[in-house]
Write a structure and sequence with these properties.
By secondary structure, this protein is α+β, with helices and mostly antiparallel strands. It folds into two domains: about 45 residues; about 150 residues, 3-layer Sandwich (Rieske Iron-sulfur Protein). The protein contains three helices and nine strands, in the order H-H-E-E-E-H-E-E-E-E-E-E.
């Protein structure tokens, strides 16, 4: 005679095993999914990473001749100088006083490797970080400024250790800095300066 209660217990045990097995598999799949999310996210650039590399646009109509503005690009201070014809004229005669007049040992795009270190003569675009120890040079555009000497042509002076740069960002002899100020990639689109792209990507 078959024991009905024993058979029922066996069926309940089998059903319980099937339920526990299914629950275990499901839990493992969910856990693996949660573990995979951060890994998949790591393949995609974060908002912060995209922001760090995004070009910066500057309206040039707001910069008067002889004026400098400072903007931020990739967490660096970018100096933009609207040079007057008089400021441009100071570049050239004093090449003998420069460490790297032709920018052979300095950093700039090929299209800015010229005497003016620029795409357009009236605009200088440089990274405002001294190439000596990373201080921020100050603008001293007035020629013959008393604090810098009668032969001062106008340019930038780093108050930290005394490095001097002309109005093309070229380092002067006697300065602790050995290289010219860095020129970042940049292009002109009408009256807009775009920092972080090359001229072929804009309209010079």
């Amino acid at each position: 005679m078959t024991d009905i209660s024993a058979t029922a217990d066996q069926e309940i045990d089998q059903d319980r095993r099937r339920f526990l097995t299914a629950a275990t598999v499901a839990t493992g799949a969910v856990g693996a999914g949660f573990a995979l999310v951060p890994f998949i996210k790591s393949w995609k650039p974060s908002e912060r990473a995209r922001a760090l590399g995004a070009p910066a646009e500057v309206d040039l109509t707001r910069i008067e001749p002889g004026q400098m503005v400072i903007v931020s690009w990739r967490k660096q201070a970018i100096y933009i100088v609207h040079r007057t014809p008089e400021m441009v004229a100071t570049l050239g005669p004093d090449d003998a006083k420069l460490k790297d007049p032709a920018s052979d040992s300095s950093t700039q795009p090929e299209y800015a490797k010229n005497e003016l270190r620029s795409v357009k003569p009236d605009y200088l675009v440089i990274v405002g970080i001294c190439t000596h120890l990373g201080c921020l040079p100050k603008q001293h555009f007035e020629r013959g400024e008393a604090a810098l000497g009668a032969d001062w042509p106008g340019g930038f002076f780093c108050p930290c250790h005394g490095s001097k740069f002309d109005l093309a960002g070229r380092v002067m002899s006697g300065s602790p800095a050995s290289a010219n100020l860095v020129v970042p990639p940049h292009a002109f689109r009408g009256d807009t300066l775009v920092i972080g792209v090359d001229p072929q990507e804009g309209v010079a």
